[in-house]
Amino acid sequence: MSVKSEIEKARELRKHIIEQCGDDPDLIADMIEAETSINDLIEWALRKFADEKTFESAIKERVDQLQARKKAAERRQDKLRDLIGTLLTESGQNQYKGVEGTVSFKTVPPKPIIQDELQVPPEYCKLSVDKTAINQAYKNGMNVPGCTLDNGGTTLMIRS
Predict the structure, then answer these.
(1) What is the reported pTM?
(2) What is the 3-state secondary structure (H, E, C) of 61-130?
(3) How far is the CA of 41 from the CAs of 35, 44, 50, 51, 52, in angstroms?
């Protein structure tokens, strides 16, 4: 049974019934049901629809579980990064080269902290404040109203 052929068969039958018996919806439905597999196809499509709805729900649940696992993995990475930094600092090392990777402290340059966006001149703004332009202005020795620089710092780079 082909869906396309059953639809065409029902279409022709409907037209014929209307010509012969008038536009009686109950009669048309009964006769189409008796002469075609349309109702079987509808039931099949409804079962498939329910299956897809169940599948969608299961996927959403799995995605939620995986997102929770991802967040947990990110937290573990942060803790391990802190641990590695502590181990390097306490051992007096600035870097470590090993089998599993290379670790070193990297100086992070200062970056702008926006204190009041309304005071930032338009040439440093995009749709929001353009921190790159402000940072360049500070590097060029300019003072940008509404901004200060943080002190920079260090970050731990992990390469594997």
Answers:
(1) 0.51
(2) HHHHHHHHHHHHHHHHHHHHHHHHHHHHHHCCCCEEECCCCEEEEEEECCCEEECCHHHCCHHHECCCEC
(3) 13, 5, 14, 15, 16
Distance, in Å, from the CA atom of 31 to the CA atom of 28, rounded to the nearest integer, reads 5
How many CB atoms are closer than 10 A to CB 144? 21
Of residues 110, 106, 108, 154, the one with CA closest to residue 131: 110
Query: Looking at the DSSP assignment, which residues form a beta bridge with residue 103?
Result: 96, 158
Residue type for position 7? I
The pLDDT tens digits of the residues spanning 32-91 come to 888 888 788 888 888 888 899 999 999 999 999 999 999 999 999 999 999 999 999 999
Give 95's strand partners: 104
Domain boundaries in the chain? 3-86, 94-159
DSSP class of 145: T
Task: State which amino acid sits at residue 56.
Answer: E
3-state secondary structure of 36: coil
